[in-house]
Amino acid sequence: MEMKAIQGEDKYLDFINRIIESKSELILERAKIDSDYSNIVEVSLRKWRGDSIEVLADSLRMDNHPESIEKWASSSVTLFRQLDVSLEVTIKDLHYFRKMLGEVIKTEAIDKELSIATFYDLLSLFHTGVDRAIFRITIVYSHPLSDSISSELSIPIVKVTNSIAILPLIGDIDASRSKDLMERALTKGTALGLQYLIIDLSGVTLVDTMVADQLFKVVAALKLAGIQAVLTGIRPEIAQTMVNLGIVITHIPTFASLHTALIHLQKSKDIHKY
After folding, report:
1. Which single residue of 24, 189, 217, 242 has CA 20 to 30 Å from 96?
2. What stretches of the chain show up as alpha helix (H) in DSSP?
3. What is the reported pLDDT for 77?
């Protein structure tokens, strides 16, 4: 049987509609799994989960605009602070919807007899959308005081479990910022009692020998403090640059995405074997 490919700007519209159709069922299933909330909080969470599913569905649109995720992230953080719900709940929900919506996409792809290449592109687009959602909500959550704080100058460390935190870096890493990164990673990491600190580089514009050297120093310092650093989000072009410069990071655990790292750390008892 010859597998079909899809053409056109609205090529994933059927998948978007299928995801929206599954929204109510997924919300109910999620509520059954995580039901330790008051009625007021539960009602708000169900509304938020519905909005989140729609945001993830929109990641499949060819004309998807980043501001939609920005707006969703801001309103999500405002709601969760009002409900006194932690960021961990948000990320767990997004992981759950990643898994379940991935199954919806797979089933629809089989029904439509998509080619392997088209299915791969579709799934990659979806996972990128989920990673972007997690990244943006983490950034917004770390800036509760003012939206005017420049994300390029910030070094936010957000705890997502009792032992794991995320440090999403954005923009350039110069000498001054590297010093701040070292101090904040050590101080905050120790204060939070972390075992793992995920340093996400998906927002870093350039990684050269100086930046790599500073990152290695931070990783070494964290190790002395009993904290295992993990790198995520190294984009293909950054990886190519690092290879060309002879930068080797085999001594540091690395993962393609924040999602993959979190899943692994929550399951693994010994990251050092990887």
Report:
1. 189
2. 13-21, 23-33, 39-58, 66-83, 87-111, 116-141, 175-191, 209-224, 236-244, 258-267
3. 86
Residues 122, 19 share a domain: yes
Is residue 115 over pLDDT 60?
Answer: yes
Decide if 226 is inside a domain. Answer: yes
Q: What's the CA gap between 270 and 106, in Å, rounded?
A: 32
Q: Of 79, 109, 141, which residue sits at a domain end?
A: 141
Instruction: Note down the domain range covering 40.
Output: 13-141
Is 144 in contact with 81 (CB distance < 8 Å)?
yes
Q: Give the tens place of pLDDT for each residue, 127-174.
A: 888 888 888 888 887 765 444 344 334 577 888 888 899 888 877 776
Interval 57-106: pLDDT, tens: 988 876 666 677 888 988 888 888 878 778 888 888 999 999 999 999 99
User: 125 and 38 in one domain?
Assistant: yes
| Whole-number Å distance between alpha carbons of 138 and 91 | 9
Instruction: Return all residues near 220 (Cβ < 8 A) that are at least 6 apart.
Output: none
Mean pLDDT value of segment 35-54 = 85
Number of domains in the chain: 2
Q: Report the predicted TM-score, pTM, of the whole model to 2 decimal places.
A: 0.53
- Spatial strand order of the sheet with 164-171 comes to 158-159, 164-171, 196-204, 228-232, 254-255
Do 65 and 97 fall into the same domain?
yes
Helix (H) or strand (E) holding 199: strand 196-204
Length of the chain, in residues: 274
Q: Are 155 and 184 in contact (CB under 8 A)?
A: yes
Q: Residue 92 and residue 96: Cα distance in Å, rounded?
A: 6
Cα–Cα separations (whole angstroms), residue 15 to 21, 37, 60: 10, 32, 8
Same domain, 248 and 184: yes
